[in-house]
Design goal:
about 70 residues, mainly alpha, Cys_rich_CWC, Cysteine-rich CWC family protein
């Protein structure tokens, strides 16, 4: 979710620690979110000023995936 140039340690949706590797000085490719498919509906909820600047945390991604399955199912 991150554009690789700006990193923040807080989820733009809930404010929790997002576990971003960039914050730890590692490359974006090492971040857990780089390998995840974040639901589009979840990305759309990120405030414009935070888009591309911080990873969504795993709990928010998991909740978004669960909500999408419930809507589809």
């Amino acid at each position: 979710m991150n554009n690789g140039t700006a990193c923040a340690g807080q989820c733009p949706l809930c404010g929790a620690d997002n576990g971003c590797s960039c914050v730890q000085g590692k490359p974006i490719e090492a971040c857990w979110c780089w390998k995840e498919l974040v639901p589009k509906t979840l990305l759309e909820r990120i405030p414009d000023e935070r888009k591309g600047k911080a990873c969504v945390c795993r709990p928010c991604v998991n909740a978004g995936e669960s909500a999408e399955r419930n809507v589809q199912g």
